[in-house]
Specification:
133 residues; alpha+beta; 4-stranded mixed beta sheet; 5 helices; globular
Length: 133
């Protein structure tokens, strides 16, 4: 339903995706400066969710939980700002961000598959929600 709403809007999906791509470059770059985040991602403890936020693949430590929650708060702030500029909802923008973040995962990293399970990226393209632009 979110994608259907997205496509009904006057915002062309390509414009939304292009703007999103530029906005998302900053968030992962900042996050990967934190060695704890990089280690957790490499260890498969966290992954990209379809909704545009980071998720826990395994129960997190208190420190990892706080780090990921902080990163997700920062992502939501970026999504809210960009969504307003694109005349989209935060949820629509975040979903598109999730599609792009999953597409950018590297082999060995975890991501949420369309069925909601956690998958490990291989050299093949990741499984993506059919509603992804």
């Amino acid at each position: 339903m979110m994608a259907a709403t997205l496509f009904r809007r006057s915002v062309p999906v390509a414009v939304l995706a292009a703007t999103l791509g530029a906005a998302l470059v900053a968030a992962p770059a900042l996050a990967q400066r934190d060695p704890a985040y990089a280690a957790a991602r490499a260890a498969g403890q966290v992954g990209e969710r379809m909704d545009g936020y980071l998720g826990f693949v395994v129960p997190p430590s208190g420190d990892l939980k706080a780090l990921v929650e902080d990163l997700n708060i920062k992502r939501k702030a970026v999504y809210a700002q960009q969504a307003q500029a694109q005349h989209a909802t935060v949820e629509e923008y975040a979903f598109t961000a999730g599609c792009q973040a999953i597409a950018r995962t590297a082999p060995g990293e975890k991501y949420q598959a369309p069925d909601g399970s956690w998958a490990t990226r291989t050299s093949a393209p990741p499984q993506r929600d059919p509603r992804c632009p």
